[in-house]
Design goal:
This protein is mainly α. Helix content is 59%, strand content 0%.
């Protein structure tokens, strides 16, 4: 099969988004954060290697006891750990909760910085988390949040070279294909698609709405 031109890849990427939009529309953030960037930041950090549903079960109790960055900055990590113990890596995450709150209080005057680079200076905050906070918390998309679902689907659709596995590099490849107006939607839509159709172990290619434009299905990978 001839190598796909960039023009053709962009056209195919836009068609993927049109179909994703038709299927999922503009979905809201699955994490409960009540419009507060601070609560969103903590919730996204807690969601690593854990389901959003599990995070939503523990955060109401967490916010009842520690409603502000100042409150959480004074918390004993062991007490935080007891609240979030139902989620994965809860001990590490409890330490990180307190460290993030402390940074917000002492470096950013008690407010989550509305700045992509500054967000990544906080403990445990990488590009994916910063992207979600900027998009969902501040309505200012700065990129595409690449998690395991987005990474896998990008490769299945041959939007990314096979040897590019690093999420940050995958993001850069996707940014070449999608105009900024699409950035904020892709993560939500692709995560849902990855859970429902393009499942990691057993992708449901026979019912996939992208099968006619997916090289992995066309070539039988």
């Amino acid at each position: 099969m001839a190598r796909e031109s960039m023009k053709s890849r962009v056209e195919r990427a836009l068609e993927v988004e049109r179909r994703m939009e038709a299927r999922y529309g503009a979905r809201i953030c699955p994490l409960d954060f009540w419009g507060d960037p601070f609560k969103l930041l903590i919730a996204v950090m807690l969601s690593a290697q854990t389901t959003d549903k599990s995070v939503n079960k523990v955060t109401p109790v967490l916010w009842e006891k520690y409603p502000t960055p100042l409150d959480l900055s004074y918390a004993n990590p062991a007490d935080v750990a007891s609240i979030i113990s139902r989620i994965g890596l809860y001990r590490v995450k409890s330490e990180r909760c307190v460290a993030i709150a402390d940074a917000i209080v002492n470096k950013y005057e008690g407010h989550v910085p509305c700045d992509f680079d500054e967000l990544q200076k906080m403990p445990g905050v990488g590009r994916k988390t910063a992207n979600i906070v900027m998009n969902e918390g501040f309505g200012k998309p700065c990129g595409i949040a690449v998690d395991t679902h987005v990474n896998r689907i990008a490769h299945m659709l041959s939007f990314v070279p096979r040897d590019v596995k690093d999420p940050n590099k995958v993001e850069q490849e996707l940014l070449k294909l999608y105009p900024k107006e699409y950035w904020g939607k892709i993560n939500h839509q692709w995560v849902l698609f990855g859970r429902e159709v393009c499942v990691a172990r057993h992708p449901r290619c026979n019912t996939c709405p992208l099968s006619d434009i997916c090289p992995s299905e066309i070539l039988g990978d």
